[in-house]
Amino acid sequence: MTVDREAALKALAAAVGADQVLSSGDLSAWEQDWRRRWRGKALAVVRPGNTAEVAAVVRACAALDLSLVPQGGNTGLVGGGVPDDSGTQVLLTLQRMNRIRAVDAANLAITAEAGCVLQAVQQAATARGLMFPLSLAAEGSCTLGGNLATNAGGTQVLRYGNARALCLGLEVVTADGDVWDGLSGLRKDNTGYDLRDLFIGSEGTLGIITAATMVLVPQPAAITTAMAALNSVRDAVALLELARARLGAGLTGFEVMGRFALDLVAKHFPALPAPLPQAPWTVLLEQSDNEGQAQARHRFEALLGDALERGLIQDAVVAETLAQSQGLWHVRESIPLAQSQEGLNIKHDIALPVSAVADFVEQTNAALQAHLPGVRLVDFGHLGDGNLHYNVQAPPGDDAARFLAEQEHAVNRMVYDAVQRFGGSISAEHGVGQLKREEIVERKSAVALALMRRIKQALDPHNRLNPDRVLATQRGPV
Ligand code: FAD
Ligand code: ZN
Predict the structure, then answer these.
(1) CB of 142 closer than 6 angstroms to any ligand 1 atom
(2) Ligand 1 atom closest to 94 (CA)
(3) Which end of the chain, N or C, is less surrounded by CB atoms within 10 Å?
(4) CA of 153 to the centre of ligand 2 (A)
(5) Ligand 1 in contact with 204 (CB < 6 A)?
């Protein structure tokens, strides 16, 4: 495709102002993904400051037949938010759209622009004595728009749901450059197809999210956090069942961490505390309650005592202070960074019925060890949701990049075949992007794929919004 670069830059400058169109210098912050796995080349990085400017950029791109890649915090892990290497795509970053528009305490809702960093949304809720319960390790840099575009999950889904469950309404710029104002704060609205749900999880391929109205919840009166050491993932599943029975809706977090995942944290962040002696598996549990602290703690300790007696856990530590609780979470949240410092690995972000997790892990670990002796498994994740980050690291001493290049295909096949056998999904959180675009063709039904293509065709007939992501389509009609 040939592009009149000068004409394009002029049209983009007319839409957002020349200062907000970057086309030279080091653009790697936008052109390269968080894992440094994909590096593209944008025609320009464009930084609109409001919804009207986003719409103007989309219309300018339509007039010039240019494609667009929306981007928020660029923390996505599947290569969905970086441009291809053609030098013809416009990278549209929402980062300047970072205003909290309103907090409606009576309606338990917050309306914020798409470029708001997740942590800023949480803080705006806290400032009003409320809580925005979406929480993930990238919250200091990922954005609300990116969270919605990927239907992000995180650490409190088992109680509060994922980004989709927390969304009441959206404002979206369509592929034609129109603005759909769907920012209702309504809990109930059955007036036809749910447009909001089409855009959530669409990874920038159906529309550009410019603002959202999200659910807030009352702040819990007491939060108790503990870590427990276990012998097996099977025991972790049994502990989850016991915790659910004892704590009911009070259980807000249940994270599991394999031994090697914590070894990597100890290796790369030696200053972090190691709260428990090393064990094959460690679980981080959290309870949030509206009772007082003393009652909540009593219930929590009774649960852990019972689990000890039943032999489900070998040891446990309960945080005494907020700082200790944050320390425990810090260990858990350092795993992604620690593994990225160790070098590239083969990532799997899978969902399984909780009842199938133990069989899956035991069988797949054994199959991988048989195929690749010495291979190391960075297993961790949101066991409460049946979601595992099941990552495969090269055996000690092997070159990580070569291992990825040579083994990714075979390892993916083994892992994803097992996921399918157990009735799971190959992406629980991170989405499809370019990483799993070919894989979903093999794993989803022909009917599902045909419906997805028809939705894309209907909402973006010229295939200008993040083409070739999610659905493999070179530029041109879908
Ligand atoms: P980006 O990376 O900028 O974009 C992601 C996708 O969304 C791209 O396809 C992009 O085109 C599209 N997009 C971005 N903004 C918009 C918009 N306004 N309108 C339309 N499309 C848009 N994810 C989880 O679900 N749970 C986790 O626990 C979790 N933990 C993580 C921990 C770390 C350390 C890291 C680096 C990532 C983690 N992620 C997790 C993945 C990632 O953070 C989330 O997917 C996050 O929601 C992406 O937000 P972002 O603003 O960085 O989006
Ligand atoms: Zn996760």
Answers:
(1) yes
(2) 18
(3) N
(4) 7
(5) yes
Indicate the CATH number for domain 100-218.
3.30.465.10
What residues pack around ion ligand 2 (CB closer than 5 A)?
429
Which of 35, 75, 437 most suits a substitution to test ligand 1, by most atoms within 8 Å of the C-beta?
A: 75
Domains 5-93 and 100-218 share a fold: no
Mutate to test the pocket of ligand 1, among 136, 156, 164, 341 (most ligand atoms within 8 A of CB): 136
Burial code (b: 16+ CB inside 10 Å, e: under 16) for 13-29 equals: bebbeeebbbeeeebee
Selection from 3, 44, 39 nearest residue 22 by Cα = 44
Q: What is the pLDDT of residue 478?
A: 45
- 40: closest CA among 84, 87, 88? 84
The domain defined by 5-93 folds into 3.30.43
CA distances from 301 to 90, 142, 240, 286, 313 (A): 54, 35, 15, 12, 13
Give the strand pairing for 42-46 and 89-93: parallel
Which of these CATH numbers, 3.40.50.410, 3.40.1050.10, 3.30.70.20, 3.30.70.2190, describes 222-336? 3.30.70.2190
Kindly report the protein residue whose alpha carbon is nearest to atom 35 of ligand 1. 138
List per-block mean pLDDT (blocks of 10 residues) for the chain, which spans 478 residues: 89 98 97 94 98 98 97 97 97 98 98 98 98 95 98 94 98 98 95 96 98 97 94 98 94 96 95 89 94 86 96 95 92 92 92 97 96 94 95 92 92 97 96 95 95 97 97 65
In this predicted structure, what is the pLDDT of residue 303? 96
Boundaries of every domain in the chain:
5-93, 100-218, 222-336
Could you count the other beta carbons within 10 Å of the beta carbon of residue 310? 12
